[in-house]
Design goal:
The complex is a heterotrimer of chains A (about 525), B (about 300) and C (about 290). With about 525 residues, chain A is an alpha+beta fold. Chain A has helices at about 5-30, 70-80, 130-140, 175-180, 195-200, 245-255, 270-275, 300-310, 315-320, 350-360, 380-390, 405-410, 430-435, 455-465, 470-490; strands at about 50-55, 85, 95, 100-105, 110-115, 155-160, 165-170, 205-215, 215-220, 235-240, 260, 275-290, 325-330, 370-375, 395-405, 420-425, 490-505, 505-510, 525. Chain A has 3 domains: about 10-80 and about 205-275 and about 505-525, Periplasmic binding protein-like II (D-Maltodextrin-Binding Protein, domain 2, 3-Layer(aba) Sandwich); about 95-190, Alpha-Beta Complex (Dipeptide-binding Protein, domain 1), CATH 3.90.76.10; about 285-500, Dipeptide-binding Protein, domain 3, CATH 3.10.105.10. Chain B is mostly helical and about 300 residues long. Chain B has 2 domains: about 1-75; about 95-305, MetI-like fold (Orthogonal Bundle). Chain B is about 75% helix and about 0% strand. Chain C is about 70% helix and about 0% strand. Chain C has a single domain (about 15-290), classed as Orthogonal Bundle (MetI-like fold), CATH 1.10.3720. Chain C is mainly alpha-helical and about 290 residues long. The radius of gyration of chain C is 22 Å and the shape is elongated. Chain C has helices spanning about 20-30, 35-55, 90-125, 125-140, 145-155, 160-185, 190-195, 200-240, 250-255, 265-290. Classes of the chains: A alpha+beta (about 525), B mainly alpha (about 300), C mainly alpha (about 290). Chains in contact: A-B, A-C, B-C.
Chain lengths: ~525, ~300, ~290
């Protein structure tokens, strides 16, 4: 047996390998720092101000027309612009790329005046043609996009001249201006394809996407040619993906990040206790819901649905899932921040009655069913597990199946009997009810399949309210609709939640938004 | 030796091809495809068909495997279904980040593990040995994620000296503080394993007949150690390092996820959660390639040093 | 290496004379240090939890209690309550049953598959052997957690799939050991004699190969058990293992993490449980191999 000086031999081997690995690492460092050389930052000679915001998910869909997630809307908010925007105080539509608009008397033609000093990041000036292209793309029947159903009222968009666009509708749509403020209605350059938009975004917004570290962080740099330079106070913005709530709050308290986009209820006490954190609460911003797929037995029987409604102890669910942050509601999809919200009495839990109804419907011993949920939206999984426990008291066995948030949408929706979802509230009357409860609503089957739920009375109310312009009359109609929903709706909504945002106390000028994503104008960070 | 090495490299390539086949076969069982993932909550049958054609999902399985594997050999892994970017550069960038973590872990645990392991082994049954054995036993009985949680709690929550998340753009060396806890977490377990392996090897060597003979002949303990034990320690040391690379790459999946570190491990977990088949397959394939190569290198070193071990 | 082992060589590398096996079993307990005996008792306790866990739990593991959310450990609740108001101690007991049973199932499954594959491979030899070993190589080239991730991502996280994934990951090393044992026995003179006598292959396997490989296989089984436990815990932590509301130690660590600052007992209890069982099993294995911990 020969004995080579072992230290040298294996040390060499190890060192060689490690040197190789470290070299690879440094090499990667060199190649990826080339991005610093591109797009110079907007403001002056001082250290660039970097704003770090933490989100629990990473934007994967960068084409505005196909965006679905809040983190993606945030991307759209920084990089793109829409014709109108939601005002900070009451979410009413205000001008953005459109300086003014008017409606014809029959409500079928809307005329928008486009501003003339907006420029795309690529350098191209914004004209009416870009607006027409963007809107037509939303409703193009040949290239399906995710939100087409929301804009079915639009038949055609026409450019009258360089700064005027007409939208021709097939039926009156009172909330069109609000609908156009949604991030999916972003204005993109004429002719851009889905592939281009997915990889090289080009908008008129105040920030340019500089780097996209997939699944981890997006780096934005201020757009030097943005028309309103004074409002841009941050040179660089980082949209950082931190999936664990615990890590988000630790990072904020330590000063590693400046903003938590959506604070998990479990972290509230920790953040409240910290002395360098400011919390902003926007009430009635979002809700959790359980979809009952009425095409599955026995959910087609309204007594069974009523039983499922009665086993719910809404206050307890609010306490368990959100630590008391949420407010119990009566399955209402029109949240308290919405001007058309009506106060409906919250039903009490009634296990006995639920059992009776089940027996009546032919299920004296209850039944078994899968219920889908996700851990990617704080509190949703807890709500589902707790609800399953409540249903068990009436003999109903719900098997909790945990999936990713996107799975809920792709495999759960329409294909599973019960699916739990998280939704942010819609700012207008029609936008909050019709996607769920109109027979061809986007979240109700989208017009191409049989709806979850179809109720003539509700359809009538919705259609009428949509085209009524008198706010008081609309409020009454929507109140009636909310009563009906509380009585026989298919989407159980145990509670609504405020949106709580947290910033470091050295951040000023940030006001939050009930929409869940933020424009960051006039925000400053003391270094 | 060269012929042996060539044989082993050939074997490696064959193994990798089979690994690719296994990976691809498993992923072909997915119930939903990327078209559904892409279109989200409002997909209709027509739009699904359209996107499926665009992504080439309507072709038979074998055709898809061949086009995938052929591309992989050329370095083209296609496009990530969820991130909509080329997989090759994405995976390489992540791999480089993980390499830094792995490199640092090995840098610490290999020399330290060898030294401590030999020390413990040569003092078998003594106080040092017992302390080291107990500490290492405890260290790898706790899963990595438990260590990570404890470290974060102490150093980030309570003491506030280290960042809780290790999110990095550019070079991982830009902010070394972000590397400390992930490296520490992985090192705890890998170091413990290395020490134990080395200790075992040392104890066994010291029990061998000819070593006892050497002692009886009057050689000093140190000379016995240097002449026989250290020489016999190369093989287990190198093999141990190879095995540890395999273990390390697996545990990095958990460690990187907890610390939000953008490495190949966290990418694999994300791809798994997103059902991003091309990305998942590419990440697992590349990781396996590294493992196999590391083991091959370790093997070649051991055999190179002791040609008598050249049997299969 | 000589073919016949010394009496006190417990490494199990060479076949033993039949009489030595029984004596080894009885002296096993005597050979353990006091720490080893403590560890063995812990393992026994874990076994008892598996059998009686649900019966001795003071509360239900799944009943909600909105009045008592996140209560600190007290006389009423030995380990406090979690964010649903559920008693943590009860969840540890019931969850222990689920977790340990699953780990046991995975271990047994890997052992059986590995033993069958390895022994047949060693015995039959030839192309079959080469093919099987190639497949084992391939499976060992993919880090275990990643294969599990792959399988679970595709097939979902049901119990049978979890067992399948872990078995796939852990049977190769066992197959190798079994194969080596089979090869060694196949060469021994008394195997030839048995064949000449007309004994069937199966009986040779059961009467000669298995008993001789038993000590090593047993040690390996212990290792596989603790590895299964750790892997299942990691999968549970990543959200790909057992699903809520089933109590599972790894899942409990994951779920409890969000409450770390406010209610650390929700995380620490299951984490300590995992570590304790793995530690105990490792100590027992360690000492049984002849070393001292």
């Amino acid at each position: 047996m020969h004995t080579t000086p072992w230290m040298t031999a294996s040390r060499r081997a190890a060192a060689f390998g490690i040197a190789g690995l470290v070299a690879a690492g440094t090499l990667s460092g060199c190649t990826s720092s080339e991005s610093d050389a591109t797009s110079a930052s907007g403001s002056g000679d001082a250290e660039p101000t970097v704003f770090e915001m933490a989100w629990s998910g990473h934007p994967t869909e960068l084409d505005p027309a196909n965006m679905n997630l809040l983190e993606e809307y945030q991307f759209g908010q920084l990089v793109y612009e829409t014709l109108t925007d939601f005002s900070d105080d009451d979410l009413a539509p205000e001008p953005e790329l459109a300086s003014e608009w008017s409606v014809s008397d029959d409500g079928l033609v809307w005329t928008f005046t486009i501003i003339d000093d907006a420029v795309f990041h690529s350098g191209k000036a914004l004209t009416a043609d870009d607006v027409v292209y963007s809107i037509m793309r939303l409703i193009d029947p040949d290239v399906p996009t995710a939100h087409a159903a929301y804009y079915t009222a639009i038949e055609e968009a026409v450019a009258i001249d360089d700064t005027t666009v007409e939208l021709h509708l097939s039926e009156p749509m009172a909330d069109l201006a609000s609908a156009l403020a949604q991030p999916y209605a972003a204005i993109v350059p004429e002719g851009s394809t889905a592939e281009e938009l997915a990889t090289t975004p080009d908008g008129t917004g105040p920030y340019v996407m500089d780097e996209n570290v997939e699944g981890s962080m997006i780096v934005y740099k201020a757009f030097e040619d943005y028309r309103d330079q004074d409002s841009i106070t941050l040179d660089e913005i980082h949209q950082v993906t931190i999936a664990q709530a615990e890590t988000q709050s630790t990072s904020l308290i330590a000063g590693d990040i400046d903003l938590i986009s959506q604070v998990s209820a479990q972290q509230l006490s920790t953040l409240e206790a910290a002395d360098n954190v400011a919390l902003i609460e926007n009430p009635g911003a979002s809700f959790h819901t359980i979809y009952l797929n009425t095409s599955f037995e026995p959910l087609d029987d309204e007594r069974v649905r009523e039983a499922l409604r009665l086993v719910m102890d809404r206050e307890a669910l609010a306490a368990i899932a959100t630590g008391g942050l949420a407010t119990a509601t009566a399955d209402n999809v029109v949240l308290s921040a919405n001007p058309y919200h009506a106060d409906i009495e919250v039903p009490e839990q009634n296990i006995e009655k639920a059992k009776e109804l089940l027996a009546e419907a032919g299920y004296p011993d209850g039944f078994e069913m899968d219920i889908w949920t996700t851990t990617e939206r704080f509190g949703l999984s807890e709500m589902t597990v707790a609800y399953a426990e409540m249903a068990a008291q009436a003999g109903i066995t719900l098997n909790v199946v945990t999936k990713t948030n996107s799975d809920l949408g792709t495999e759960g929706y329409r294909q599973q009997p019960m699916v739990a979802f998280y939704f942010t509230g819609f700012p207008d009357g029609d936008g909050s009810i019709s996607p769920f409860y109109e027979s061809d609503g986007a979240y109700n089957g989208g017009g191409s399949e049989s709806p979850y739920f179809s109720d003539d009375e509700l359809d009538e109310l919705i259609t009428e309210a949509r085209s009524t312009t008198d706010t008081e009359a609309r409020a009454e109609l929507y109140a009636d609709a909310q009563e009906i929903i509380a009585e026989r709706g298919y989407a159980l909504v145990p509670y609504e939640m405020p949106l709580v945002t947290a910033t470091g106390s050295d951040v000023s000028g940030f006001s939050g938004s009930a929409m869940g994503y933020y424009e960051l104008f006039n925000v400053t960070v003391e270094s | 030796m060269v012929r042996y090495a060539a044989q082993r490299v050939g074997l490696l390539l064959l193994t990798l091809a089979l690994v690719a086949l296994v990976i691809f076969t498993i992923t072909s069982f997915l119930p939903t495809d990327a078209a559904e993932t892409k279109l989200g909550i409002l997909a209709t049958p027509e739009s699904l068909e359209f996107v499926r054609q665009q992504l080439g999902l309507d072709q038979p399985v074998l055709v898809r495997f061949w086009s995938w594997f052929g591309g992989a050999l050329r370095g083209d892994f296609g496009t990530s279904l969820v991130f909509q970017t080329e997989i090759g550069p994405l995976v390489m960038a992540r791999l480089a980040n993980s390499a830094v973590l792995a490199g640092l872990v090995l840098l610490i645990s290999v020399p330290l593990g060898i030294v401590l392991g030999m020390w413990a082994g040569s003092r078998e049954g003594g106080a040092i040995d017992r302390i080291i054995s107990w500490v290492t036993l405890t260290a790898f009985s706790f899963p990595e994620f438990v260590w990570a949680i404890l470290l974060i709690f102490v150093f980030a929550n309570i003491l506030g000296v280290l960042p809780a998340a290790s999110i990095i753009t550019g070079s991982p060396f830009d902010d070394p503080a972000k590397l400390v806890m992930p490296v520490a977490t992985a090192t705890i377990v890998v170091l413990a394993l290395t020490i134990r392996m080395m200790r075992q090897g040392t104890v066994q060597t010291l029990e061998l007949d000819y070593v006892r003979t050497a002692r009886l002949k009057g050689l000093s303990e140190w000379k016995v150690f240097r002449k026989h034990v250290m020489g016999n320690a190369i093989a287990p040391a190198v093999t141990a390092t190879g095995t540890n690379v395999a273990y390390l790459l697996g545990s990095l999946a958990v460690v990187e996820t907890i610390f939000s570190f953008p490495g190949i491990g966290s990418l694999t977990v994300q791809a798994a959660n997103n059902r991003d088949v091309p990305l998942l397959a590419a990440a697992v394939l590349l990781t396996s390639a590294i493992v196999t190569t590391a083991n091959l290198v370790a093997d070649l070193i051991v055999v190179g040093l002791n040609p008598r071990l050249r049997k299969s | 290496m000589t073919a016949m082992a010394r009496d006190n060589d417990t490494s199990g590398r060479a076949p033993r004379a039949p009489r030595a096996r029984w004596a080894a079993g009885r002296s096993w307990w005597a050979d353990l240090s006091w720490t080893g005996r403590v560890a063995a008792v812990v393992v026994l306790a874990a076994g008892l939890i598996v059998v009686f866990g649900a019966a001795i739990a003071p509360y239900s593991a799944t009943d909600l209690n909105p009045e008592a959310l996140l209560v600190a450990p007290s006389a009423d609740h030995l380990l406090g309550t979690d964010n649903y108001g559920r008693d943590v101690f009860s969840r540890i007991l019931v969850g222990g049953r689920a977790t340990l049973l699953l780990a046991l199932l995975c271990t047994i499954s890997s052992m059986i598959v590995g033993a069958i594959v390895g022994i047949t491979s060693g015995y039959i030899g030839g192309t079959y052997d080469m093919l099987v070993m190639r497949i084992a190589d391939v499976l060992q080239s993919i880090p275990s957690l990643l294969i599990a991730l792959l399988v679970l991502a595709v097939f979902g996280s049901s119990i049978p799939i979890l067992v399948l994934a872990i078995t796939l990951v852990f049977f190769p090393p066992i197959a190798r050991i079994a194969r080596t044992a089979a090869l060694q026995v196949a060469k021994l003179p008394f195997t030839e004699a048995a064949k000449v006598r007309g004994e069937g292959t199966l009986s040779i396997v059961f009467r000669e190969v298995l008993p001789n490989a038993a000590p090593t296989l047993l040690t390996e089984a212990g290792l596989r058990f603790s590895h299964s436990l750790l892997t299942l815990a990691a999968l549970g932590f990543l959200g790909l293992g057992v699903q809520p509301p089933t109590p599972d130690w790894g899942l409990m660590v994951n779920e409890g993490r969000a409450y770390m600052s406010a209610a650390p007992w929700v995380v620490l209890a299951p984490a300590a449980a995992i570590a304790l069982v793995v530690l105990a099993v490792n100590v027992v294995i360690d000492e049984s191999k002849g070393g001292r911990a």
